[in-house]
Design goal:
The protein has 339 residues and is of the alpha/beta class. It has 12 helices and 12 strands. The relative contact order is 0.12. It binds S-adenosyl-L-homocysteine (SAH). The site of S-adenosyl-L-homocysteine (SAH) has 17 residues, from strand 8 and strand 10.
Length: 339
């Protein structure tokens, strides 16, 4: 698959197959400057080479099965692959930015209570070329300036393929999207932190925390039973010390569940264990499989923000985008397959 080969790998890969390595530069130009969708479009290459490439390194087929657009300009695409499975990707325009939210798996095994993607388990992980295909589908709508891996799936549960795709999108002779413009988000699969730190690439890292203690976190996020908060925060602290990069903790506010003053105080104490920690507060997007979970009122969210700020935690209150496009978390696929 052409989109699973990193730009620097092409020469050895071609040589191995008895193909001419000097063609690599021309091929890269076709792939990532002309953005061909089929080798037949690569008219600068000889016809027999195009045929060989189509046979041995085809461009991954994908189809946009569904789109929905929100009144705020957020666009959600449902991307279908050859085996009939589909994932969502969301395009989020903002001043000076065009952010794409991409998926790493079909469904998700993590089973967080408030998340639509996990409500039916995981079907399969995406291969790196399928993740690149999501980016290719997105960039047809405008130049992508930022990527967040916050769509369906847990990127650290599909570490190698996700990382390969992001390295390809980041590659200078590939799409060349800056590492600091690419954010991975994990629910806390602890072995991923040391692996990411060892990569030496400056991707941004977010950690979905959502609760300040094990009792509550294990209720909301089953992953916490395997890697409890102490272990998670130790891994985060090791990561920031080693990389000198900040970590952003995501905290989805759910009315009457994790939005009390006591939770805010405890959260502040916990995240201060991690150097360079930041917090993003996100109002819950209601999901159909859990009608009992509700968004807190404005006053409660402001109180929560205030407590963190008074505790000197760098905090942002995010506003949901794309609500009327079913753009929050796994909802488009659910609408299509029935949920
Ligand atoms: N598995 C990864 C990335 C996918 S989820 C992770 O857990 O980080 C991306 C973010 O959306 C996570 O912080 C997740 O907790 C949050 N999220 C999921 N469902 C949500 C909902 N209904 N409302 C608000 N945020 C939600």
């Amino acid at each position: 698959m052409a989109w699973s080969v990193l730009p620097d790998e092409w020469k050895p890969v071609l040589a191995e197959r008895g193909l001419r390595p000097f063609r690599a530069d021309q091929m890269l130009h076709c792939l990532y400057r002309d953005y061909i969708r089929d080798w037949n479009e690569a008219t600068t290459l000889p016809k027999d080479l195009r045929e060989t490439l189509n046979r041995e390194f085809p461009l991954t087929r994908y189809e946009i099965l569904d789109t929905s657009e929100s009144s705020d300009g957020t666009k959600k695409l449902l991307i279908g692959f050859a085996d009939g499975e589909a994932v969502e990707t969301v395009l989020i325009p903002a001043t000076g930015r065009f952010t794409q939210c991409i998926s790493s798996q079909v469904g998700c095994a993590m089973g967080c209570a408030f998340c639509a993607s996990g409500s039916r388990g995981v079907v399969r992980s995406l291969a790196s070329d399928e993740i690149v295909a999501e980016y290719m589908a997105g960039r047809a709508f405008g130049e992508i300036t930022n990527i967040v891996v916050m769509g369906m799936g847990e990127p650290f549960a599909n570490y190698d393929e996700t990382m390969r795709a992001l390295k390809l999108i980041n590659a200078g002779r590939g799409p060349n999207l800056g590492a600091r413009h690419i954010t991975l988000s994990t629910c806390g699969v602890v072995p991923g932190f040391a692996k990411l730190a060892a990569e030496g690439i400056q991707f941004e890292l977010s950690v979905s925390l959502h609760a300040p203690n094990d009792k509550l976190r294990s209720q909301l996020m089953p992953v916490n039973r395997k890697w409890p908060i102490d272990e998670l925060l130790d891994a985060c602290a090791d990561y920031t010390r080693k990389t000198k990069r900040a970590i952003t903790f995501e905290y989805t506010l759910i009315a009457g569940v994790n939005d009390s003053r006591a939770c805010a105080d405890e959260l502040a104490r916990q995240v201060r264990r991690v150097p360079l920690a930041k917090v993003n507060l996100i109002p819950l997007s209601p999901v159909s499989h859990r009608p009992d979970l509700k968004t807190p009122d404005e006053r409660t969210m402001m109180m929560f923000l205030d407590v963190l700020m008074k505790n000197h935690v760098q905090t942002m209150l995010r506003r949901s985008r794309g609500k009327d496009a079913d753009a929050a978390c796994g909802q488009l696929r659910l609408r299509r397959i029935g949920g």
